[in-house]
Amino acid sequence: MLAESNISPLDAHLGYWLRFVSNHVSHAFAAKLAGRGVTVAEWVVLRDVYDRDGVAPSLLADRLGMTRGAISKLADRLAAKGLLTQSVDPQDRRYQTLALTSEGRALVPDLSALADRNDLDFFGHLAPVERARIEDTLKGIVRRMGLRSIPID
Questions:
Q1: Alpha helix ranges (H) inside 35-123
Q2: Which of 127, 108, 122 is nearest to 46 (CA)?
Q3: Rg of the chain's alpha carbons, rounded to an integer?
Q4: How many angstroms separate the CA atoms of 116 and 7, rounded?
Q5: d(CA 16, CA 79)
Q6: Residue 1: pLDDT above 60?
Q7: Judging by DSSP bridges, how do beta strands 96-100 and 84-88 pair with one another?
Q8: CA angle 59, 23, 79 (to 5 degrees)
Q9: Structural element, H or E, at residue 87
Q10: pTM for this entry
Q11: What is the mean pLDDT of residues 86-107?
């Protein structure tokens, strides 16, 4: 079958190039985190809880755009790794809070440095004005489209 001339090639789409770069940025970061025994999703939870110790899983789920089940599984994994505690309110056993352990609190700045390094590896060559233009454009798309979920995969 002959290709029709009005069918655009894959790389004619901006989405193709966004995904191409995004996949490489994400995979490089995931590899850096794996060396520290943490997944990208776990990093997102750790980083958020770092700023809000004693947070309810439901609030975390809402803020991150994740399901409560996903937060529960991530919290269980992080607790098993000794990075997060899950406390139940003795007055209301349905109410739970998540907080970082001292190990988890000490790990977050190291993981943040990996995130910064990954960003520098991919975008450090950009002039500040180029970087700002790209960031503003992408944030504008996020606002216009009402995007909410944190990208974790």
A1: 40-51, 57-64, 68-80, 102-123
A2: 108
A3: 19
A4: 40
A5: 38
A6: no
A7: antiparallel
A8: 35
A9: strand 84-88
A10: 0.86
A11: 87
